[in-house]
Structure formats: structure tokens, C-alpha cells
TrEMBL record:
Gene3D superfamilies listed in its UniProt record: 3.40.50.20, ATP-grasp fold, A domain (3.30.1490.20), ATP-grasp fold, B domain (3.30.470.20)
Reaction equation(s) it catalyzes: 2 D-alanine + ATP = D-alanyl-D-alanine + ADP + phosphate + H(+)
Localization annotation: Cytoplasm
Source species, domain of life: Bacteria
Listed name of the protein: D-alanine--D-alanine ligase
Amino acid sequence: MRVAVLCGGESSERDVSRSSGWAVAQALTGRGHDVVLIDPAAEEPVLADPVPADAAVVRVPTEPPAQAERALLGQRMYAALTGGPVLEHLRRADRVFIALHGGWGEDGHVQALLELAGIPFTGASSDVCAVAWHKGRCQAVLEAAGVPVPPRVIYNPAVQPEPPTEVKQLLEGGPVVVKPVAEGSSVAVRKVDSLDEVRGDGEVLVEPFLGGREFTVAVIGTTTLPVVEIELTTAVFDYEAKYQPGAVREICPADITPEFATRLQELALRAHQALGFGTTYSRADFRCDAAGTPYCLEVNALPGLTPGSLVPVAAKGAGTTYAELVERLLTASGGGSPTPC
């Protein structure tokens, strides 16, 4: 097939996405596809056409891009996706493989543009991405579907300068985790102990810090991959820990009882279905409390696909190579295409 791989973008996960994009494009080239790699936010958006099979692995820096860069990146991205040579590349493709993470790539904006243009793409539709991306909306859907989620408070300092009483009540039970309500790769996630530390910029979700073990489960269609345990050396699984080799241990399959593994997989599949992912793919993240009870923290619509990311780790645990995984994601029914290519 002629495949256009979209990566990079304007979000704080831009560097992660470029690493995913190069790896995906190289894998698809090795499988015999005709691949063009595009970063719509780059000054020169066509990174490779065709993509060489021996392209070098792109490392992820220890820090996300500066906030000041994102306005220019967004301008370039919008222009590239709505006209000119990038749009023509997308129209000529049999399918667009979305390897974007965060921002417009994961909140439904890019998917909506492709849907309007009638261009088939991988992953979930724009409406599903929009719900999954906003942690507050996502957790509300999961809770209604019977998936356990932590108690949480949405707080926007721009609207309410003082944290609400509910935040104070959460802090009375111990430390809390504060995270942007719409952000990925654990950017700006922090563990805090006092009310003053909760204050910050933008809308955030505040939830109790859960001191137990951390797990993640990927789902493709109706198939759950093996459970991955994340052994942390930090309080939270932050940006640096996620993408620097050796920062954490990712154990797959997780060293847990078969019954507990089945429980996590059932919850991940229930979350996947409740949010409407259908035949596409997702990754549900869980953390346990001190008693070992798991809670779903979020569901990722476009999880990382760097060779060391959690979905490829889970696929490897199931005996699936990286190239086989990418091929499977390409041919699964996705947005703008009701049937596999």
C-alpha cells in the first residue's frame, strides 16, 4: 500500500511522535509498503519519500519542547493539513498512519480534518479521541461503565483562584497527583503535599496519590495484550522516565497472578469498548492503592510507538515483533474506513 505516516506535530509530545513516526515508517517499508513520512509542523514537512529501510532510530530528548515554540508549530501544521503538497500526499495514500501523540493529533482535530476530506486513517475516530483525550470526560465515561477510577476534582485557577473544598478534602487523605486535564506522556504531572503546590497554569485534574503498583494493558479490537508492569524509581511515571532507556523497568508479562492479570485485561477491554474504540486500538493505564485495588487513570487513543514504548513491549510479550504489530495496526479498521485495507 501507499502509506503516509504522520508524526511530530505541535504538541509537547512532538519529539516522542517523531521517534514513533520514524520507527513505524521504517517497519512498514520493511514490510513492502511504499511509505512517505510527514511532520506537518516542520518547516520542511516531508521528512522522507520514500523512507529508507535502514533509517536510524530517533532518540527522545529528556525534556519536551518549550511552550513558546508551539504557536509557530501549530500555524505550520494547520497550513500543511489544509492545503498544498502535504494534503496531496495524504489524498494519494491508501491509508494515513497517525503516529502523532498529544495535541491536535490525539484530541480529534487531525482525525476530523481527515474525515472531512474522506481520507482513511488508523486509530479511533475524532469523537472517540476527543473524549479519551480529556481526562475528566474520560474518567466520567469509565465510571459509568463500571471501570474503577480514583476520586478526582477538575480545577481551573483561571476561573477559580482558590482550590475548591474538594481539593482540600483530598489533601487531608495524603499526597495528591496534579496533572493537566488534557496532556499526554505525563508532561507536567507532579505529586504534591500542600494546597499551594496545587496552584498552577491551566485546567488540571487532582486525584489521590495511589501508592501501589502500576500496570498498563493494550487492546487491539477485542484482543488484550499481556499486562505490563511499570516498576518506578520515581513517585510518578513522568516524561523523562518514560523515554530514557533504563529509567524504569517494564516487565512483560507482569509478575502477577493469572486471576489479577485477567481482571486488568477485562477492565481494559471494558474501558476500550465504553469509549467506543471498537476495532481500533488503545492502552489503559492502571495504578493500585496500598491495598492492591486497581484504578484506571486514563485511556490513550494514540499511545507511543517508539520501539521502547509500552504497546510494543506488550506485543513482544505476546510473541509479536514490532513490524508485525505495526502491520496489524495499519490493517485494523480505523477512522474513515469501515473495513480493513
